[in-house]
Specification:
single chain, 5-stranded antiparallel sheet, 2 helices, 5 strands, 21% strand, globular
Length: 117
């Protein structure tokens, strides 16, 4: 798979973790009419910014949503490009190896919830 080329205003993220949420499953089963194919699925990701504004390069980030995995290749790959609303710096209390899903951010260690963050 070709490495994504970020467009103006986007960042390139080296994916370190990617979740599988219900929309990803529906997508690969052909139940999401807006999906263009062929397409790499994946909407949720955590990783490190490799290209973009200088102040973001090297920062650990996470993101979700938009058209990732539907109209453009998603996060089930080595890299993904993300629009500014899709990127957020990791909260300082989380380690890089932990995907920041809602149950961690809310301090609930009982396990994941049904919906993505």
């Amino acid at each position: 798979m070709d490495r994504p080329v970020p467009q103006a205003g986007e960042v390139l993220v080296r994916v370190q973790a990617a979740a599988i949420n219900p929309s990803d499953v529906k997508n690969v089963l052909g139940k999401m009419g807006m999906t263009t194919v062929p397409r790499t699925p994946g909407r949720d990701f955590a990783g490190v910014v490799e290209q973009g504004p200088p102040e973001w390069i090297g920062r650990p980030v996470f993101g979700t949503g938009g058209d990732l995995g539907f109209r453009r290749d998603g996060s089930h790959a080595e890299s993904t490009s993300a629009l500014p609303p899709l990127r957020s710096e990791f909260p300082s209390r989380l380690i890089k190896e932990c995907f920041p899903c809602r149950h961690c951010r809310d301090g609930n260690s009982s396990g994941p919830r049904d919906s993505p963050p």
